[in-house]
What does this fold into?
Amino acid sequence: MNSLLRKILVVCLMLGLFHVAPAFGTATGLNNIPTTDVVPKDVLVFQYYGNFANDSGPDHFLGFKYGPFKNVEIGLDGRVFPTEDYREEFAAAQGKVRFELSEKLAVAGGIANLGDHDRAGREFPYAVLSYDLGLFRAHFGGTIQKDNEGFFGGIDKTVKLFERDFTLRSDLIQVNDGDDVIASIGFVCDLGHNLLLESWMSFPSASEQADVLTMKLDFVIRF
It folds into this structure.
């Protein structure tokens, strides 16, 4: 595991063990795009996720995100458990600021992929708008990532399933400098005990890219 990521995760885990209290949170993005959602103030979310495709072995990641102030989110994640297909370890940081314009409308700006360009890719600066239409929430934004500028959008809807929140979500993002897109559909399920399960399928339009299944487990802590 990347040494910096390991040290930060250990420190955060130790803090969490001594300050854990019930907390309920939601994902702060859809499947492959950011939204205006942020981690609430003084909430820490540990994350594991893996990508699984037919033409390669699993790709594993660990990370965390934290709300140091209201409407501000910071985070760090990176690849762990290198495999034959994914040998390069890396860590990348991200940050986001949210601005509430009304009860239904919010905008946010942020940047992701702050790290080693060769391993994590170029920085991903973005702006996004979210609007609650009642029947569902809609999200639309864009990025000026170098050599990969494009737009993205998506929708999500939260319902009750066995008295717990269950969110259906779908999104679409332009990639390869607007020449291709990645579409996805998935869900977020509240498992109880401060655990959330996220899962989605991604469908790249580029013919040489395989469909990818992503599984993510979130552990939510409030200080």
Q: What stands out?
A: Residues 3-222 form a domain with the Porin fold (CATH 2.40.160.40). The radius of gyration is 17 Å.
